[in-house]
């Protein structure tokens, strides 16, 4: 599952640590580089060892990655 970053239009590779695929909510899939998501204020600080919350830029729902 590879795609185009929602923000910079660069390639997002699903298996890369800093590339995120937001697909656990709704009926859409959003590809985003972690750096781009952080730059737009969509990444929350980690609250536990589960990961960080990333907010979908399309609908506003947060996913943990």
Give a short summary of the structure.
This is Small CPxCG-related zinc finger protein. The protein has 65 residues and is mainly beta.
Task: Tell me what you see in this structure.
This protein has 65 residues and is mainly beta. It has one domain. Helix content is 9%, strand content 31%. It has 1 helix and 6 strands; from the N terminus they run E-E-E-E-H-E-E. The strands form 3 sheets. A two-stranded antiparallel sheet has the order 1-2. It has a two-stranded antiparallel sheet with strand order 3-4. A two-stranded antiparallel ribbon has the order 5-6. Strand 3 (19-22) and strand 4 (30-33) form a beta hairpin. The longest helix is centred in the middle third of the chain and has 6 residues, at 34-39. The chain is globular. This is Small CPxCG-related zinc finger protein.
Give a quick set of tags describing it.
single chain, 65 residues, mainly beta, two-stranded antiparallel sheet, 1 helix, 9% helix, Small CPxCG-related zinc finger protein
Number of helices: 1
**Main β-sheet, in a few words?**
2 strands, antiparallel
What does the average pLDDT come to?
92
Q: What is the N-to-C order of secondary-structure elements (H for helix, E for strand)?
A: EEEEHEE
Overall shape: it is globular
- Give the tally of β-strands: 6
Number of domains: 1
What is the first-to-last residue Cα distance? 16 Å
Helix content: under 10%
Which strand order do you get reading across the main beta sheet? 1-2
* Backbone CA Rg: 11 Å
Strand content: 25-35%
Structural class: mainly beta
Low-confidence stretches: none
């Amino acid at each position: 599952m590879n795609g185009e970053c929602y923000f910079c239009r660069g390639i997002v590779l699903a298996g890369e640590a800093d590339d995120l695929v937001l697909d656990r909510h709704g009926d859409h899939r959003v590809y985003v580089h972690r750096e781009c998501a952080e730059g737009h204020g969509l990444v929350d600080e980690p609250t536990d060892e589960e990961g960080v919350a990333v907010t979908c830029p399309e609908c506003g729902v947060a996913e943990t990655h």
